[in-house]
Every structure is written in C-alpha cells, then in structure tokens.
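Example for tutorial group B:
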C-alpha cells in the first residue's frame, strides 16, 4: 500500500506475491480495512485463484476505486456498521468480466458493461468475483446527489444495463480524468468531483431539473472529452469530418460545434492543432527519423503538403525540415 499523489489514497496488489501467499494477504487487508475504513473489505473465496490489483483515490465528495479482482468477495457494510460520514451512494461498473451481487436472499448477475447502484441500507450486501474482472467503483455522499435525483430511499441493489449513454460517459470521463491525469489544483479537483457527481446522477436517474443541471455541467464536459478523444484516435484520417465524429458520438454536428464554441474553439482549429502537435512529436523523436516529411504529413491527416508546411511554420516558428534537423534526424529519407 502506498500513496500515489495528492488525490490517491491507497494501492494494493497481489501481483508480486506467490499464489500460495495471496489469500493470507487478502485476509490481512480485510482486517486492516475494517480498522482503517479505507474501502469495503475483501475476503478470499475458497478454492479459487486470488488476484487483486486496485487503486482507490479520494477527493472531497468522491471516492473512486478501480482495478482487477478475482477469487474474492467484497462486503459492502450496512449503514449501522459505518460512520455517518460514510452514508454514501455506491455505483460499481463491470468494465470486463462478470460478478454477482447478493442482497438478503437475492442474487443479481452483472455482465460486462453492467453497473449496480445501491445505498448501504440496513443489511448491506456483497459482491462476488470468482473469475477475473476489471471494474470501476464510485462512492458519493447522498446529500451531494439528492438535489439532482430527489430522495434516495434505502432499497435493494439494482442493475443499470450496459449501453446506457450516461453510464458510458461516466466511465469514459472518470477513466480519463481520475486515472490518468493529475489534478494539481483544488479548483480542478472540485470541478472534476462536480462533473462525476452529475454523471452519476444521470446514470442513477436524475429529475427533470436535475438532468438539465447535469447537462450543462458534467454531461457537457464528458461529451466534449469523448469527442476530443475520438478526434485524437482518428486524426490521421484525411476525411475526418464533424459529421463523422457526431455520428460516432450519437449527437448532432451542431451540438459538436456548440461544445467547441463554449471553449473558444472551432472543430477545425482543434483538429488542425492535434495534427500539427502529432507531426511535431514525430519529427522531434527518433522513432520516425527515417520517414520523409511528406510521409509524416499524410500520416497525421494532411492531404496537402504545402498547406502542412505553412500551417506548421505558423504554429512552431520553424519549418518541419528545421525541426527534423534539430532533432538529429537529417539522415536519408525513406518511404
């Protein structure tokens, strides 16, 4: 277990342990988590291979746990077994694999892409992961969500089927923001927490007014990030258009334009910036040193070499050849 950064609280993995020692490590972790309240306790399942590799990150108003579990049972304690500060709404997503939720005498199967939503309730519940599964789990205070969703009654755990738009946005946004990018300022941390709370509310089922609020904050931010990721993944396509991106993201081209306008950008300038940035990286490093400048230009989506040269020089104050030469890549050009 170790601290990761300003917003990470705990990391635990059995990957460096021999198979025979993993069950004991999980039992030791169970005892520690009961005492420290770091996350919902885990216990090994009998006659099952055990693997845990997880990270929990905590921000004010949000806890996120992600990783891989196998051969373990996770006990979500009842409201009476935790402090009043832990009266949370819990959301868990199966990114891959299958798990089972047990609540009193009920069993719910969660397949790949499914999520569960639950409050602690009076009895708690458990989650069983027999085979390897990747997951992402969220804890948010009830009082942060109720203004958007209305009253949250104690009730049985329920499944949110895969494919829900808000659920997909939640996973994409949280994966990109919480798991990959540093949150260096308290202002950025608060913004991210608000956005994820909005997306959780939309996933759970926001009221009409609550959904309108979430649409203007978290949902908008998540959609913009998903669109930017789409562009980055397809930037080498010379025929990349706003219509194609909008179709993949299931929104209208006008909505895409409005999202960029809200950031003081246009779709075309963002695409151009991504292409130039990628070209600069390729020309500045050794990996593509034996490729011609024209090959690089076409690879990042430019269909006109002259336009690429002009745009590149305007952006970086130097020609592609000068950047390539400065990086020591002036050798023979192939391809």
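The residue assignment follows.
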């Amino acid at each position: 277990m170790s601290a990761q950064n300003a917003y990470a609280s705990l990391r635990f993995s059995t990957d460096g342990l021999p198979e025979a020692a993993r069950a004991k490590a999980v039992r030791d972790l169970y005892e520690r988590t009961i005492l420290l309240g770091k996350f919902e306790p885990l216990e090994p399942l009998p006659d099952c291979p055990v693997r845990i590799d997880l990270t929990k990150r905590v921000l004010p108003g949000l806890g996120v746990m992600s990783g891989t579990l196998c051969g373990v049972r996770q006990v979500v304690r009842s409201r009476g077994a935790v402090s009043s500060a832990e009266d949370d709404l819990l959301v868990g997503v199966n990114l891959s694999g299958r798990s089972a939720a047990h609540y009193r005498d009920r069993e719910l199967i969660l397949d790949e892409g499914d999520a569960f939503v639950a409050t602690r309730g009076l009895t708690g519940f458990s989650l069983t992961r027999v085979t390897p599964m990747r997951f992402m789990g969220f804890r948010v205070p009830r009082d942060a969500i109720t203004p958007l969703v209305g009253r949250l009654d104690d009730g049985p755990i329920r499944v949110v089927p895969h494919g829900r738009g808000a659920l997909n946005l939640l996973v994409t946004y949280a994966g990109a923001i919480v798991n990959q990018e540093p949150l260096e300022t308290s202002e950025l941390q608060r913004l991210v927490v608000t956005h994820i709370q909005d997306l959780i509310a939309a996933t759970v089922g926001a009221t009409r007014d609550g959904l309108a609020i979430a649409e203007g904050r978290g949902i908008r931010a998540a959609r913009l990030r998903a669109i930017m990721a789409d562009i980055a993944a397809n930037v080498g396509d010379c025929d990349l258009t706003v219509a194609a991106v909008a179709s993949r993201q299931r929104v209208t081209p006008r909505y895409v334009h409005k999202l960029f306008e809200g950031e003081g950008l246009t779709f075309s300038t963002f695409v151009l910036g991504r292409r130039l940035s990628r070209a600069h990286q390729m020309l500045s490093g050794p990996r593509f040193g034996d490729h011609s400048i024209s090959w690089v230009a076409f690879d990042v989506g430019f269909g006109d070499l002259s336009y690429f040269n002009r745009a590149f020089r305007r952006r970086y104050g130097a020609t592609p050849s000068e950047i390539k030469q400065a990086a020591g890549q002036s050798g023979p050009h192939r391809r």
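The chain has two domains: 8-228, 269-326. Compare this with the pattern of hydrophobic and polar residues in the output above.
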